[in-house]
Amino acid sequence: MALPDVEVHRWTRKEYERAAYAGAFGDRRVELVDGVVYDMAPQHSPHATGVTKAYRALTAAFVSGFTVRSQMPLALGQYSMPEPDVAVVPGEPDDYVKAHPKTALLVVEVADSSQYHDRVRKVEIYARAGIQDYWISNLAQDLLEVYREPVKGSYRQKLTLRRGERIAPLASPGVVIAVDDLLPKRL
User: Residue 22, Cβ neighbours under 10 Å: how many?
Assistant: First the structure.
């Protein structure tokens, strides 16, 4: 006997926000990516260290006219509200009192157990949202992946940078950041 086809409910940002404010997700850390609510992986020490290092490096690189946010929502289209590990958004913190930013100049995800999620699912939503500079601090391989030139849900350019190398953010080309300043110390 054939089972009938059923559709998976694709959450909108508005539905997701209403559910979150109503406490539907309890104490779980979740995020909305392309209409699907995903549980966020627990933060192990290397991940937390990577987030802290990226936040520090970007706070030093983006001073006036920018806000560096850590693990806060971006309102990307109708079906996505990711919470990137670090995002550089235009303007000042008070610009976002009434609504989350709808774009970012640079997004950094720190990936240890979330490689697939950050490389496939999030690459697509960040590219569709026109995020020009998307970096993955890849803890498993001890390197930085840089995605640039978004086109139709993917990026034309992918760079792989290793320790000892440097990168300039597209939105602040006069500043150079060492890859070592983004990755946790090797033990």
Answer: 8
